[in-house]
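Record format v2
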Amino acid sequence: MASVELRNLSKSYGDVEVLRDINLIVEDGEFVVFVGPSGCGKSTLLRMIAGLEEITAGECLIGGQRANELSPKKRNIAMVFQSYALYPQMTVAENMGFSLRLEKRSRSEIQRKVRTAAEVLKLEALLDRKPGQLSGGQRQRVAIGRAIVRNPRVFLLDEPLSNLDAALRAETRVEITALHQRMDTTMIYVTHDQVEAMTMADRIVVLNGGVIEQVGSAMELYNTPASIFVAGFIGSPKMNFIKGRFAESAGAGTIGIRPEHFQIRNEAGDWTGEVAIVEQLGHDTILHVRVPDAGILTVSLDGQHGQRVGDQVHLSPISELIHRFDNQGRPLPTRN
Amino acid sequence: MVGRYLLVFFLGAIAIVMASPLILTVFSSLKPTTELANPPWYPPFDVTFEHYFRVWTEGKFNRYFLNTVIISTVDAIVMIGIASLAAYALVFMKYPGKALIQALFLVGLMIPVTAIILPLYSIVRSVGLVNTHLGVIFSDLALAVSVFVFMFSSYFASVPKALHEAAKIDGATEFQIYWRVVMPIAKPAVVTTALLEFLWSWNDLLLRLLLLPSDKMRTLSVGLLNFQGIMTRDVTGLSSGTVIIALPVVLLFLVFQRHFVRGMTQGAVK
């Protein structure tokens, strides 16, 4: 186990600066998720920690030791790639034991460690197969197994679930969380999926345009976003942003209301609108309501509701849960 | 349907035209001298292998064959090594001057052998390698390395970068990645290189004629010239010599055809 510390880290390709002044401490045993839209620099940041990308400026410390000049091997990290990156000519057992073979460990030790990891990941029956004979989920487990056998100080995972279907993604998400709890190793996980980030992370790092927007637990980010970007990125369905007279009346440039923070009332009011789309999810009903001066608002209601397209609904936001932002997208203090 | 018959007829006609020199050569090599007056497209009525024995012993093809096998085999093996290592360095590694080295290899693709044959001869002579197999092998490698570096580079470019990175994280050195990760999955490129280089080396005449003047160092392609004087022509000797030269290459191609085609088309489509 080891902590990871990033001090004023920057990365440029020629004149293009892709990461700027990144400062972050990942504690020993912590599960941190880097999340952000495509091109925000999250994978580049992970690759810099892994030693696969050069650091343009700043420092990366692993276990308190400066790692800028260390090769990936000497950093004692393990990485799981989006594409799995399994060696196609090797069996599952050979893939998992490759790093140990390079370290010239004894055959019996390699076999023991591979078998232990295979048991944890339910891969015992597949040890003699080649990657080409495995399903996507099995390949992903082998990639995780390859990382486990090394007993690394830090686990790095680069969008490991993005090639899996939705059901398998949810299942593997739980397995990775359980694995972290069992191994208690520092894990840094990159994803563009905020649901993955919120369900797995001890802390989430939200990146946008090469800078850190906010660092915090899932609930901190959800309840007190540090910017309009974080407010919009965290939470599903997305927060509604409203400008114009509604925002002015709240003393803000923009107000943000989460879909689940609307209530349906019986009497007409300012927030009366017409239902444009209805999404029935069983446990939730999502309405897209066209409200004059506010645009189309997403409203999430618990349980099953009978509204139909074209119906008039009278909405009412929970006033103490309205987020206020200034014209630069910075949050304004909550009104009491 | 008519179109299909026309196509089969057309392709069949082309196949016959293409194969006819080989068929006629085999016919001539198996004919006794008494049948030589027959038209060349007549098959041998009384098949004989006497010309093969004659060429093999009197024509010294036994020695030439050995010389050719040695040169072609060493050429093929060493070419796989140097071309794949160079291509690995060009595709997977970062270092200053890489673009320049790439450009130099590209230039190597563009220069015809005949344009540099005399300076090459001077160099080989100045280092005392004329009339040695080593001189021919070095020259073969130098002249063809660009082609095979280019071919290996195309193949390696299709290997996912993540494999190289995963191996680096697993603690492999660059050579270990080359040897244990990249080369085992580059078999089609290896087979194609081995076959092509072997074939080129086996069939080459110009360099061997120039660099191997001594009879005991000669290769098959040069030896074949013994059967063709200025005023005379030993048709049966030439034919059986040609079959002896062609046979190993044809057999190799038939055995490795699948790999060969795969290697040649690698990178052509996604």
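Chain B has a mean pLDDT of 89.
Chain B has two domains: 21-59+226-270, 63-225.
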